[in-house]
Design a protein that fits this description.
There is one protein chain. The chain is of the alpha+beta class. It has twelve helices and twelve strands. It folds into four domains: 17-89, no CATH class; 94-194, PAS domain (Beta-Lactamase, 2-Layer Sandwich), CATH 3.30.450.20; 204-270, Helix Hairpins, CATH 1.10.287; 274-446, 2-Layer Sandwich (Heat Shock Protein 90). A hairpin with a 7-residue loop joins strand 3 and strand 4.
Amino acid sequence: MSLFGLNLFWLVTLAVAIGIALRQRRRARAHLRLLSEFTEALAAGEPEPPLPPPPTDSLGDLQVRLRRAAAAERQRLDAVRAAQHRLEEVLGGMIEGVLLIDAAGTVLLSNNRAEVLLDLPRGDLPLGRPLIELTRNPDLHQLVREVMAGGGAQRPFVRDLQLDGGKGLVLQVTATPMPSGPDGLRSFILVFHDVSETKRLERIRRDFVANVSHELRTPLAAIGGYAETLLGGALDDPQRGRRFLAIIERHTVRLGRLVDDLLTLSDLELGRTELRRVALQADDVVEATFEVLRNKAVRAGIALTCEMAPDTPPLDADEDRLEQALVNLVDNAIKYTPHGGQVTVSARAADGARASEGPAPAGDGFVEVAVSDTGIGVPPEDLPRLTERFYRVDKARSRELGGTGLGLAIVKHIIQAHGGWMRIESELGRGTTVRLYVPRFGRAEDAVPA
């Protein structure tokens, strides 16, 4: 081979080698670009682009390692998402409101209950907002300042707060510092527990103890005082002695009536009262009630009327207990209605609109029995408390008329024992209406106790 031919061979070989190297370089660049896009998508949490089968060189080894890393990262992300979903479910199912804030007071985490308790507008999310924008309650912010100034102490700070918003809620707020994270930033968790009902029950208990003590003290003091007077010599005066004994008897009857009402109410609340439920016609129960109170109504100058809708279904109730409830209501109506007034007892099938206002199912499963009067009425602020034990709007007049303050509480529990409920409407100077919703006969299985 000549020198020219040898040089030409090497030139061709070199050109082929350069071409192969350039093509491999282009393929490597394209592969690297795909691997780069794959990595960027993985880092952004987006779906990764497809990759070709891995080559047998170092790029192929890198591709295999990236795929393994992507699979592991997907597993970690799935685990994080599952944990976050569980956390959201737990927070959403809590009856307590929860807020997580940072050292600047910015909300980092919240649940729906916190938004309800803080009375935030619908859709007004608290995340990323300062706590001071969500509530202006000074006691809450003082509690936050105290927990932030607590240094490294992990002890919780607890305080009862009356938050704004017009709901009259009393919240027990527990503020606890959280351990600092890897970045050194501090956070604090606030837990809001609605204790309004607990506070209300505590107040009712205190009022009950005070009221029952007062109610018992009055007749006992009278009985003791007049008995002492009799023993001191009044027995020698027949006229004074008989008068004092009549007073003692009157207070003894009052004391017995009070004890009987307390025992009745206790048995109803504890479910010790056995109901003998039968099919009752509403007009028969109303007539029996009027028989008991007709003379009293005549003496007071009160007209008793009965209005029964022609299609009123029979009641599914205990006759004695339902009559006891109606006697209490009609007796109250007579007491607080001026001379010349009227007390009306009506009954009809409860329509869906009215029945849906109670705790039991709506529909035609209940009968509405209403006791209305043209009496003095009740102030609006007193209506929610009328069924509390011993609660009286006019205490002096109630005692003067012989009431124990337990009548409406007994009525409420009698109706609840039947699976119904009661509602009271009143207007000062215009009268009061008490509506009882009693299950109709044949639909007792639909009743839901309150």
